[in-house]
Amino acid sequence: MPFSSLGLSESLLRAIGDSGYTVPTPIQQKSIPAVLSGRDLLAAAQTGTGKTAGFTLPILQRLADKHFDRNRPVRALILTPTRELAAQVGESVTKYGAHLVPLLKSDVVFGGVKINPQMIRLRGGVDILTATPGRLLDLVAQNAVKLNQVEVLVLDEADRMLDMGFIRDIHKILALLPKKRQNLLFSATYSPEIRKLTQNLLIDPVRIEVAVENAAADTVEQIAYSVNKTAKAAFLTQLIKHNDWRQVLVFTSTKHGANKLTEKLNSAQISAKAIHGNKSQGARTSALADFKSGGIRVLVATDVAARGIDIVQLPHVVNYELPRSSADYVHRIGRTGRAGRGGLAVSLISEEESNALRLVEKLIGAKIKRGQATGF
User: Fold this and answer.
1) CA nearest 363: which of 224, 214, 221, 222?
2) Which of 50, 141, 207, 240 could form a disulfide with 25 if both were Cys (CB 3.0 to 4.6 A apart)?
């Protein structure tokens, strides 16, 4: 099925072609017509399924088809859990809206940077706003933006927003929106909290599931090694060098652990940088750019900082430590094996983590292959 069969305009099809895409992913095939119809949407979609284009493309079309308002009130609001994901969504809006006439104005706002430049930009008007919840409420409090004309609301990675404690902020934002609007909710997992949110938010939604709930993509090979806690850095160094891995995303449980591992890898002549909440936005953006371009081999990240990392051909993901939540395991390894390409997800399991591994296997409904870590 080509993109041209989904009801998108010539301007959008041209932008899709410019991006090198020819065939929509399964979620795009289902979500684009649903969003164009004006229905509410509930989509269970893992990262790497193409879900971002699945809502940015039809939103661009819906807004472009309507009467153009010179004052540019916010007509589409996209909420994301992290800065990185907000930036990624913003890039998608800009890329796909490049040939629209007139051009729709979009912006991205998040915390960790000065608020004044954001206030100035927003007071000039914006059609599509991508934001993290906390910074959006700060801007509302400063009268920099009004949300009373929002026509479409998107909650992207809603499960992650709830995990990060944004539920109160989300309810505050919902209270500022018009009651009559289209609501789109995307989530990789369906927790009881997500189900409760959807019951209160969505009206007769179109339901889309493109992957088994809580499952890992079948393009990802998963392997777990039993490794002494104190030997993990040495074993990871050996894995990277022996296999000549050139692009590896490594997850740690703590910011301190990320810094410590980065130092050890660099000492072993493996170029690495860390991203986490204590790093400035500039440092995080720079590290991610170096990783994408091949300037460094390893990016060490905490779960929150890694949200929004979008590298289509990322070959290797390593769980240096298992996450506290089994659902986060699915999020982590969803960074590889994207867009139908193969990927490898490696987990280094200390004795204390063996029960956590069993819980992961129970969640994904599969036994993870064990590897030999002789001497470690």
Assistant:
1) 214
2) 50
Nearest of 58, 44, 68, 75 to residue 16 by alpha carbon: 58
In a domain, 214, yes or no: no
Tokens representing 361 are 């296997």
Residue 213 has phi, psi (to 5 degrees) of -55, 130
Structural domain count, the chain: 2
- Can you give the CATH number for the domain in which 348 is found? 3.40.50.300
Residue 68's domain comprises 3-209
The CA dihedral of 191, 87, 18, 156, to the nearest 10 degrees, is 20
281 burial (CB, 10 Å; 0-12 / 13-18 / 19+) is middle
The helix, strand and coil proportions of the chain, stated in percent and rounded to the nearest 5, come to 45, 15, 40
Could you give the angle at the alpha carbon of 14 between the alpha carbons of 12 and 15, nearest 5°?
Answer: 65
Q: Is residue 36 exposed (0-12), middle (13-18) or buried (19+ Cβ within 10 Å)?
A: middle
Determine what percent of the chain is predicted with pLDDT higher than 90.
Answer: 63
Lowest mean pLDDT among 38-42, 115-119, 188-192, 354-358: 188-192
Do the Cβ atoms of 122 and 70 come closer than 8 Å? Answer: no
Tell me, yes or no, whether 215 lies in a domain: no
Q: How far apart are CA 334 and CA 345, in angstroms?
A: 9
Nearest to 27 by CA among 225, 266, 307, 217: 217
Give the three-class secondary structure for 174: helix
pLDDT in tens, 144-176: 999 999 999 999 999 889 888 899 999 999 999
Q: How many residues does the chain have?
A: 376
Question: pTM here?
Answer: 0.67
Could you report the per-residue pLDDT of 298-337, keeping only the tens digit for each?
Answer: 999 988 777 667 676 789 999 999 998 887 888 788 778 7
pLDDT value at residue 209? 81
DSSP string, 315-335: -EEEESS--SSHHHHHHHHTT
Residue 68, pLDDT > 90, answer no
Q: Which among 17, 14, 103 has a CA at the least distance from the CA of 64?
A: 103
